[in-house]
Write a structure and sequence with these properties.
about 150 residues, mainly alpha, two-stranded antiparallel ribbon, 7 helices
């Protein structure tokens, strides 16, 4: 038996079901993941005393040099990196700031997962994905949890 047409027309969104806004925010987070990963890797390479070359970034991220080249071009347009043909890649001030923000988010998520007793290898892998999708409010909650654990 078919449900009546009136109930179909007045369907309400289920409690807890994601709204369009939730999906939009998730898509934005996925779109920024790549930029976050790249600026973090570039910063890591530079801080390690090495140069950030296409080949080094490709090796670190497990992608091809062609992919890195295209992504670096996008990052250049976004004002996050400076690069010249056949030269190393450097972060702009905006890129450095983003790298620090990403590193901080990563550290908070990693520390939170470790505080739950998750093994380090698993926590590192999970933190790499989660860090891009947590809100500032969630990060603050993670920090409060970590601070509470450290006091005990």
């Amino acid at each position: 038996m078919r449900s009546d047409s009136k109930s179909c027309k007045t369907k309400k969104r289920q409690v807890g079901a994601p709204s369009a806004e939730h999906h939009r925010k998730a898509r934005e987070a996925r779109a920024s993941e790549i930029a976050h990963d790249y600026v973090e890797v570039i910063d890591d390479l530079i801080k390690a005393g090495s140069e950030a070359r296409l080949v080094d970034i490709a090796r670190r991220l497990g992608v091809t040099h062609v992919t890195v080249n295209r992504t670096v071009a996008r990052l250049r347009k976004q004002g996050l990196v400076i690069s010249e043909r056949y030269r190393s890649i450097f972060l702009t001030e905006a890129g450095k700031k983003l790298a620090e923000q990403v590193r901080r988010r990563h550290r908070i998520v990693l520390d939170f997962l470790l505080s739950l007793g998750i093994r380090e290898g698993i926590a590192r892998t999970d933190a790499e994905g989660i860090e891009h999708h947590v809100s500032k409010a969630t990060l603050r909650a993670f920090e409060r949890h970590i601070a509470g654990k450290n006091r005990n």
